[in-house]
Every structure is written in C-alpha cells, then in structure tokens.
Predict the 3D structure of the following.
Amino acid sequence: SALFNFQSLLLVILLMICTCTYVRAVTPRLIDRNKEGFLGLFWMSARIGERLSPYVAMACVAMAVTILIQ
C-alpha cells in the first residue's frame, strides 16, 4: 500500500537508504557482494547514503517533522 501514497513511498525509500548504509558500515561484505541484479538496489542505496549523507539526514528530519505535524 506504500506504492499508492507518495509520502509513504518516500518514507520507505528513505528507510531503505538509511538501513543499507548502516548495514554496509557494519558488515560491508554483505552489501558489496551484490552489485548487480535486483540485490544491486541495496548496494546503490548504500552508496547514495554514503555520498549524500547530509541531504539524506535533512530529508529524514523533514519527513519526521511532516509525520509529527499530521
């Protein structure tokens, strides 16, 4: 049902980016071995989280404020 609600879709994407970045920091071999195919989405999410971490953090704060206001 998150696919039909834009705010929920953004929340799922942000949580996936943050989770993949954390998992790669703790156990890099788990994420790095799957760079291609469907599981490559997790590797790409981890890279986005590493390279754009200030923007991802601001997006997470903005999403938290939006959810608290509603």
Summary: The CA atoms of residues 18 and 68 lie 20 Å apart. The chain has a mean pLDDT of 90. Residues 6-26 form the longest helix (21 residues). The chain has one domain: 3-69.
